[in-house]
Write a structure and sequence with these properties.
Length: 301
């Protein structure tokens, strides 16, 4: 059943971008309904990559967040299958909330109520097919976006009976004021979206800098303007600059007129590859440990 997805990839061999630039490659979208129903009966868990469409400077595409979120979940799925875990990737969802980049062309945003409704309706679709659990990551670091997802998942769990979990890095958990003990939040040591490549960068790196540029360059090289990225100077921002940028709209556009915050000039496909594989492995380990500790999974076939 899942063989048509897993063939040649269960061991994690091959680039996750070998399916081209389709964010549906190796997801349940390319299966037929019988295969989906069979996967649900077999106790497969779902991975649901979320992101947004927004500007990412002059050197990256609008789809950076969803491309990277999808690629990460694709690699995670391969790693989970190699450990014997049945898994499907749900259709990547790229509608979300853009506060910081809202003033730039190509940054789409939906109301929090819309995002919550999409989560609830999608959970209902998962549940009617017989799936029990879904793990969510988002490639977008906007606080309101992430808070809305966490609140939306909590509400959708109650209304649909779907066991939904939002996987967050500690830095995002703290930004949202969560304790990490909430039943619908899973904390991972995988880096947050837009994280810097070094543990202690000299300046703040959060948007279209070295981290995101390198990750996109590794998985989707044709979408990165490498020469332009190499020519862009470090924004050299500190905490006060970040706080001003996070106000969004005109404040952000004034602060970052070229739409990036960080140092894309230090990016490379090699750095992106190392960070990508490390982050995906950490995320896979987090999900495997959570599944193993979940009592309802022990009773699945």
């Amino acid at each position: 059943m899942i063989a048509m997805i897993a063939a040649g990839s269960a061991s994690g061999q091959g680039r996750v971008s070998e399916g081209g630039y389709s964010i549906f490659n190796e997801t349940m979208v390319d299966l037929n309904y019988q295969q989906v129903e069979e996967a649900a009966k077999a106790g497969a868990i779902l991975l649901w990559p979320l992101g947004v469409i927004e500007e990412h400077g002059p050197h990256l595409p609008l789809g950076t967040d969803i491309y990277n979120s999808y690629a990460t979940m694709k690699q995670v799925a391969r790693l989970l299958r190699a450990k014997g875990q049945q898994v499907l990737i749900a259709p990547p969802m790229y509608w979300g909330i853009n506060d910081a980049t809202g003033a730039f062309g190509g940054s789409f945003s939906v109301k929090p109520s819309t995002l919550k409704a999409i989560i609830e309706d999608t959970f209902a679709s998962f549940r009617k097919d017989g799936f029990q659990s879904v793990y969510i990551i988002t490639g977008h670091g906007d606080r309101l976006h992430n808070l809305t997802i966490v609140e939306g998942v909590e509400a959708a769990r109650s209304s649909t009976g779907m066991r939904g979990f939002v996987v967050l890095a500690p830095v995002m958990r703290d930004r949202l004021g969560l304790k990490g003990t909430e039943g619908h939040v899973v904390v991972t040591d995988a880096p947050a979206a837009g994280a810097a490549l070094s543990a202690a960068p000299r300046y703040i790196e959060v948007h279209a800098g070295a981290g995101e540029t390198s990750a996109t360059w590794f998985n989707f090289p044709a979408l990165v303007n490498g020469p332009l990225a190499a020519s862009l100077p470090d924004t050299k921002f500190g905490p006060d600059d970040l706080a001003e940028w996070r106000k969004g709209w005109d404040n952000a556009r004034t602060k970052t007129p070229l739409g990036y915050l960080g140092d894309p000039s230090t990016s490379s496909a090699e750095r992106g590859g190392a960070a990508f594989h490390d982050g995906a492995q950490r995320l896979a380990n987090t999900i495997l440990a959570h599944v193993a500790a979940s009592p309802w999974m022990k009773h699945r076939p």
